[in-house]
Fold this sequence. Notes:
The protein is an alpha/beta fold. Helices cover 38% and strands 17% of the residues. It has a five-stranded parallel β-sheet, sandwiched between helices.
Amino acid sequence: xxxxLIDDDVLVCSAIARxxxxxxHSSRTETSAASALTLCDAExxxxxxxxxxLGPGSDDGIALIIELRRRGYTRPIVLMTGSDLVEARxxxxxxxxxxxxxxxxxxxxxxxxxxxxxxxAPPTPSRGVRxxxxxx
Length: 136
């Protein structure tokens, strides 16, 4: 699976990308909605994972999802946040995006893969359960 990760914190993108690469997936990272849209147009990733808050002066993840759908992107999209989940879910609802999975950072790899609809092999003793975003 080719995954696009969008977060204004490159360390978060890296923390998510590393275990996915170990599982054989590829990932690209972007730090803004504008650069993510450009990459989606050019490379058509199989799925998108975006942060809710993409930094000052930038569109947020909800605006990005709306624009992706306006452009006809129909592949899985997951929203992640380190903010209040109740408020994030309410914002999704107000935008008509009740169907978008929402993950609280930090989250475990299997949570992300489930949200993306990818079958996950049970963790082996050598891999264990892995949290893939830093604690905020």
